[in-house]
Amino acid sequence: MEKLLYGVAYYDEYMPYERLDTDIQMMKDAGINMVRIAESTWSTHEPQNGVFDFTSVNRVLDAMHEAGIHVIVGTPTYAVPTWMVKEHPDVLAETKKGPGKYGARQIMDITSPVYLFYAERIIRKLMEQVSGHPAVIGYQIDNETKHYDTSGPNVQLQFVKYLKEKFGTTDALNKEFGLAYWSNKVNSWEDMPSVVGTINGSLGAEFSAFQRRLVDRFLSWQVDIVKEYRKPEHFITQNFDFEWRGYSFGVQPNVNHFTASEPFDVTGVDIYHPTQNDLTGIEISFGGDVARSTKGKNYLVLETEAQAFSNWTPYPNQLRLQAFSHVASGANMVAYWHWHSIHNSFETYWKGLLSHDLQPNPVYNEAKTIGADFNRLSPKLVNLKKQNKVAILVSNESLTGLQWFPFNQKTELNYNDIVRLIYDELYKANIECDIVHPGTESFDDYSLLIAPCLYVASDELLDRINSFVEKGGHALFTFKSGFTNEHIQVRTTMQPGRIAETCGVNYQMFAEPKNVKLADHSYNVEVNENEVHTWMELLIPTTAETLARYDHPAWGEYAAVTGNSYGKGYATYVGCIVSRELLAGILQQALERAGLCGTEQHYAFPLIIKSAVNEAGKQIKFLFNYSWNTQSIQSPYEKSIELQSGAIIEKDQELSIEPWSFFILEIQ
């Protein structure tokens, strides 16, 4: 990117009255230099089958170009028009819940030949209209694309073809998936039942992986069409989202971000997060780290909130804090859903940058300061590079595996809870990290690799991690790691299977802890924070040292946390789910062993420090205060310039960071 982009989604079609010129003037006043259009309005662009009307698109493109505002055009394929469903009801996805019903977005079968025919036609018609327009800088493919649990007969047929290609024979399939159990054995491909009702976790998880591949294929197919029209300088992106818990939370179960992002020039994401007293910056950071790690380069925030829900209406200064938090993780663009608060339908109370009266308001006025600073500071903050020495290994396969085989039947705790438990504690300790995945070729750029609940893993992946440790790397495994192979077949060796030698530990039994604490450890926690819950493995060290054992009359002879020197490296194994306070101590110990505790680790949340290198080769330090209390810090850096104010900051100079505010230092 040549500059930071600051933008909004803008749908002229949603406006209650004519105000395009007014909106554009307000955008220019706010420093908005980019809008997203077209992705949500297929029924406007093709009101009847084969009848096309791009009047609204063209008038917005012309007006934005005249105003000097860039445009990203979205393919409008994620919300199908009524006429299509009337003529072809089978374009709606059949799921485990039965046939689809029209109304919501993202309800189509992305493998339907009929849907794909109409989707290709609207994409080509749209591209013919917009690809030569000087306002356009890029294209967004679809919107928050997933497989929508499509699993009807046509999808089942494709799945059988996929299984035949992968396994060759039903005998091989039966063996790998253990289908003899409960007489699920398939003796001919023609007898293969729908997987919707399967009780076999291996088969069910394979179908989930197949569904994620459908997303890869669908997005790549659209990219290939758009590439036929786009100019060389135009980029193609997609706005990936995350597991949703009322906000962006964890690894997306229905998309593999790493494989799905391959055909794109730049990864885009939608990141929504709690605000007001609950604003921590963690979701901004996690989503950004995933997006940046997919391609190892800068990314675009295509959607984030301005006001949104009543419990998200930002306090003064929070909108600025949020915007620059995205930049600190490597974002080259921050854009809001939506420009204005919509006056009807599903998202009426998901408020935009403007409220329902469409007039300036405190949030819009704060956005004006962001737009001005993005423009002024772009030469210093665009294309920031990050070099992290800690990586978290995330796995869609393990996520799916633990959906099939949860920790116990009484808990809703899942894979993403453990990923976020680890990520959150690293974040709060000012440890920045990358996100890697099972397909990552090498972990050698990192000093510490953390593998949370790597329940599903091939021998080859575990051997790569073992080799990483043997060559001098540090690894931290949690419980449930290495338990099954890539087909969710439990390994028949003593657990943790293929990593047992590296970790210097094994176990045969696990239990649900009741009134269990940890003993004989060096983690500085209060008694009531010294809890083990939900899951515990009864570890027996072979060559490992015991870093903590269970404090319990029945389980006290077993280790809970172990550490083992292996080759030139060191492996920590955490055999239980612990409190946040205990985990923070375990992580701190692993970081110290890996030599990763530096200047920033003298500070902790709510003072968050992010580091990067700008295009001039200068170190940039973001100092964020996510709290109501003023945070004080003596600058640990050599002479620097505070980029917002231009003030010179000397080493050891006292800095007071106001509530919900921040400093940006460029080290000289």
TrEMBL record:
The keyword Disulfide bond does not apply. It catalyses: Hydrolysis of terminal non-reducing beta-D-galactose residues in beta-D-galactosides. Residues 389-596 form the Beta-galactosidase trimerisation domain. Belongs to the glycosyl hydrolase 42 family. Its EC number is 3.2.1.23. Keywords: Glycosidase, Hydrolase, Metal-binding, Zinc. GO terms for biological process: carbohydrate metabolic process. The lineage of its organism: Bacteria, Bacillati, Bacillota, Bacilli, Bacillales. Residues 10-376 form the Glycoside hydrolase family 42 N-terminal domain. GO terms for cellular component: beta-galactosidase complex. This is Beta-galactosidase.
